């Protein structure tokens, strides 16, 4: 068992894992011309390390990176870093999928489904913003977030999470699309799962279709006025599900700032979402590689700069 005790060690371990897995996706993203001085593996490592530290704005990431030239000797200037990060966004998401295939915890067939709000713009800025048209072209809409008792302009991120806390898959949907519709679309890509959800996913016809076509058992929390309630064993499983969902949602919101959009375009938002979700997966993957008992031990977050 090993514990990462220094930020430099965290960076080194992250680079080792990224560079090890990168050949599995690199062939699909070859560029013409000579290779850049800062390799794709190095740049992706900087992105994932930055997400773990909360440096999700290129200015912060490039600025803080100057103190670690011994680890990253070539750091692209901010605008070039941003362009390469966006160009590599699909590759970063594919890297997440490669890690999932190698992660034992991702084999858990018991999962939970839930959603997180992802505003495109802060609500009070929407009326006077010239960017509204751009976001609407990419599906952003007004929608209610019942758990927070608020209305947002943007999206909801559907998350499929194992009961071990690993994010298996996700779907970004307009905020006015209800959880049941978006969740059914996400689950239709999977098979042989037991999936727990809250009342927003309650639908006997949808559950029947998922069971018949995908061998997915969708269990939802019954409404209080329903005659049939869950048996004690399943009720206990629902309690565990709620704890896991709240933990993962809290990690994404508080550690990775996923509900605070700092992108000025949909492509930028997509790149940031891919980076944050991949950083979460890699933190767990790295933990398992080191034999740590904690599912998410992002020790780098606790280090002073």
What this model shows, in words?
The protein is an alpha/beta fold and 305 residues long. It folds into two domains: 7-101 and 290-302, no CATH class; 108-261, 2-Layer Sandwich (Nucleotidyltransferase, domain 5), CATH 3.30.420. It is built from eleven helices and six strands. The relative contact order is 0.16. The model is unreliable at 295-305 (pLDDT under 50).
Helix content: 40-55%
- What is the CA-atom radius of gyration, in angstroms? 20 Å
Number of strands: 6
Count of domain modules: 2
Low-confidence stretches: 295-305
Layout: helices, strands, pairs:
Layout lengths: L6 H15 L1 H4 L13 H14 L4 H8 L12 H10 L1 H14 L7 E12 L10 H6 L3 E5 L4 E13 L4 E8 L4 H9 L5 E5 L6 H11 L1 E5 L11 H24 L10 H25 L15
Parallel strand pairs: 1-5, 5-6
Antiparallel strand pairs: 1-3, 2-3, 3-4
Helix pairs in contact: 1-3, 3-11, 6-11
């Amino acid at each position: 068992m090993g514990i990462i005790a220094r930020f430099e060690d965290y960076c080194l371990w992250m680079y080792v894992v990224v560079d090890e897995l990168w050949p599995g996706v690199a062939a699909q993203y070859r560029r013409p011309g000579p290779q850049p001085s800062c390799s794709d593996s190095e740049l992706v490592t900087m992105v994932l390390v930055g997400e773990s530290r909360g440096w999700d704005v290129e200015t912060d990431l490039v600025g803080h990176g100057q103190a670690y030239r011994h680890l990253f000797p070539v750091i692209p200037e901010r605008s070039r870093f941003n362009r390469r990060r966006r160009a590599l966004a699909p590759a970063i998401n594919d890297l997440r999928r490669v890690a999932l295939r190698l992660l034992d915890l991702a084999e858990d067939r018991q999962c939970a489904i839930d959603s997180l709000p992802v505003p495109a713009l802060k609500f009070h800025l929407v009326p006077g913003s010239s960017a509204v048209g751009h976001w609407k072209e990419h599906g952003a809409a007004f929608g209610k977030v019942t758990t927070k008792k608020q209305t947002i302009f943007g999206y909801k991120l559907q998350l499929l999470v194992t009961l071990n806390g690993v994010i298996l898959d996700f779907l970004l949907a307009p905020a006015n699309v209800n959880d049941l519709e978006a969740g059914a679309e996400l689950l239709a890509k999977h098979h042989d799962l037991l999936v727990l959800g809250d009342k927003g996913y309650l639908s006997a016809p949808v559950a029947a279709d998922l069971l018949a076509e995908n061998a997915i058992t969708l269990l939802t929390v019954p409404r209080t006025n329903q005659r049939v309630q869950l048996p004690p064993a399943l009720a206990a499983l629902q309690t565990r599900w709620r704890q896991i969902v709240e933990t993962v949602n809290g990690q994404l919101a508080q550690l990775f700032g996923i509900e605070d959009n700092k992108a000025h375009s949909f492509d930028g938002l997509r790149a940031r979402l891919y980076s944050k979700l991949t950083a979460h997966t890699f933190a767990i993957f790295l933990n398992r590689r080191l034999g740590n008992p904690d599912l998410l031990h992002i020790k780098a977050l606790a280090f002073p700069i």
